[in-house]
UniProtKB/TrEMBL annotation:
Signal sequence extent: none
One GO-annotated biological process of the protein: negative regulation of DNA-templated transcription
Name the UniProt record assigns to this protein: Transcriptional repressor, CopY family
Membrane-crossing segments per the record: none
InterPro entries in alphabetical order: BlaI_family, WH-like_DNA-bd_sf, WH_DNA-bd_sf
Length: 123
């Protein structure tokens, strides 16, 4: 499966669709924060997402109900691998160090990460 990178707007729409599982354009708009984008804007982004292979739809007359065909988990995996390779030379240690230095990870979270690493070592 060839996953493409999403723009910020496309990612925002996908986050909504992953959350609601399936829906019409109006359902997506309801979930978006204020100020709400125009119906045509959301509709256009959804059609682009369909072209990129992220969504498909069921037709009900002239209306379409959209649903994801790439899971949130698959995109997270793609995005995190891209982040690691582009900015951290494929080093999880460098990534972890970056977040610690930026104070994005506190001691409790660091401890939880170390526990996860220990569990992985046991396998």
């Amino acid at each position: 499966m060839d996953i493409k990178e999403l723009t910020k707007a496309e990612e925002q729409i996908m986050q909504v669709i992953w959350k609601i599982d399936k829906g019409f354009v109006k359902d997506v708009i309801e979930e978006l924060p204020e100020p709400k984008p125009a119906y045509n804007t959301v509709s256009t982004i959804i059609r682009i997402l369909e072209t990129k292979g992220f969504l498909s739809h069921k037709s009900y007359g002239k209306t379409h109900e959209y649903y994801p065909i790439i899971s949130e988990e698959a995109y997270k995996s793609f995005a995190s691998e891209k982040l690691l390779s582009n900015y951290f030379n494929n080093s999880v240690e460098s990534l972890f160090s970056f977040f610690v230095k930026k104070q994005k990870i506190d001691i409790k979270e660091a401890d939880e990460i170390l526990k996860l690493i220990e569990k992985l070592k046991e396998k």
